[in-house]
Amino acid sequence: MGAICLTRVDDRLIHGQVMTKWSKGGFNSNAIFVIDDEIAKDPFMKDIYAMSTANSGMTIKVFSIDGAVEYWEKDNFGNDRAILLFKTIGAVKQAIEKGMPLDNLNVGGVAKKKDAKFVIDSVALLPADVEILKELNAKGVKIFFQTVPDTKLVSLENGLKSIS
């Protein structure tokens, strides 16, 4: 039976840290799902992501938010034990609102933008991101900030203290 092993926000999506650290980090995952509406519409980008795991033994699939939710509702991802990768916190919120059952959320890579503040070295949050994270937390999603599994895990509460 399939499962969601890890849900991560990382605006770079698949990169070395995801492939070498998170996919091998004791999650017993066999698949990585990139969930992004724009990439799902772009056959060239879908091919690039599919090729990025050619030697890893991992399956990669690219979904729109709706497509990922439909695949979950169909049969809980079949035999895929997946790491879900989102580019934005807003996309995670949409997936949850559409029925994706996410209990935990790792926010590990969000680039600095104007008006954003760093929570950890690799995560800079806009005020709108903070509000979404608070809303998801109130709904029972455990949120944490962590770049890679062997770095310090920072809880939502402690992370938000660092920017207030």
From TrEMBL:
InterPro entries: PTS_IIB_sorbose-sp, PTS_IIB_sorbose-sp_sf. It comes from Propionispora vibrioides. One of its GO terms (biological process) is phosphoenolpyruvate-dependent sugar phosphotransferase system. It comes from the Bacteria. Residues 1-164 form the PTS EIIB type-4 domain. GO terms for molecular function: kinase activity; protein-N(PI)-phosphohistidine-sugar phosphotransferase activity. PROSITE patterns: PTS_EIIB_TYPE_4 (PS51101). Keywords: Cytoplasm, Kinase, Phosphotransferase system, Sugar transport, Transferase, Transport. This is PTS system, mannose-specific IIB component. It is found in: Cytoplasm.
